[in-house]
Amino acid sequence: MSGHSKFANIKHKKEKNDAAKGKTFTMIGREIAIAVKEGGPDPANNSKLRDVIAKAKANNMPNDTIDRGIKKAAGDAGNVNYEAVTYEGYGPGGTAIIVDALTDNKNRTAANVRNCFTKGYGSIGTQGCVSYMFDRKGQIIIDKEECDKDADDLMMLALDAGAEDFAEEEDSFEITTDPNDFEAVREALSGQQIAMTQAEITMIPQTYVTLSQESDLSNIQKILDMLDEDDDVQNVYHNWDE
Fold it and tell me: What is the mean pLDDT of residues 46-67?
């Protein structure tokens, strides 16, 4: 998931178990299939595929697994029946939630997502009802433990490549870009052999909502956990300030 905190959590510290990693690889495999279907199997001529490959590598997907996924998708391009759908709604305390899914059955996915909101006392809204509260940005997270570069040097490298912002947290660096500049910044970092824990286009909240009531905290966690368990759900963005 994305957007779980003001500065995105480093996923790998939460997703060490094989089941979580397996689901992540499955989700990225679907994204590869869609990208190949829409723009072909050559990353040099398919920017969307390049972005998915960057995401795959940030999630430690082996190169041979990525290559197999691309080749399989190229061979099955005419048979790929996944469709990208987005749902927007409200969680407890007026929190805003956006759900991205890839599905081969929109009715099933819509019912499942609605059920997640309902169980957590939230509600699905109309398209656009909360997305205006978020900015679409490129986001790159670098684990300090895996980066030997000085913070100032890393910041200058990112800004010179076109990044909009650079932030240093306790255990990570976060680089934010315009979506159009994301690839250039990512390639500049990659060219310096800098390992990226997260590298993707995401939705970043403009403001954050703090929840204090135990019932609200329990219910929003229920919504997020249920969405996380749904195989069709690719990404979840929210403005809850954990």
Answer: 88
CA 18 to chain centre: 19
Q: Residue 231: which residues within 8 A CB-CB, separation 6 or more?
A: 23, 26
Q: What is the mean pLDDT of residues 103-121?
A: 95
* Angle, alpha carbons 191-33-104 (nearest 5°): 145
Partners of 143 in the β-ladder: 172
- The count of other CB atoms within 10 Å of the CB of residue 227 is 23
**CA quadruple 168, 169, 172, 178: dihedral, nearest 10:** -50
State pTM to two decimals: 0.80
Question: In this structure, is the dihedral angle defined by the CA atoms of residues 49, 51, 57 and 60, taken in order, positive or negative?
Answer: negative
Q: How far apart are CA 30 and CA 96, in angstroms?
A: 26
CA distances to 43, 60, 174, 195, 238 from 117, in Å: 37, 31, 30, 36, 13
Other CB atoms within 10 A of residue 193 CB: 8
Tell me the average pLDDT across 76-86. 77
> Which residues fall within 8 angstroms of residue 40, CB to CB, at 6 or more apart?
46, 49, 74
Which are the contacts of 1, defined by CB distance < 8 A and separation ≥ 6? 224, 227, 228, 235, 236, 237
Contact between 55 and 199 (Cβ < 8 Å): yes
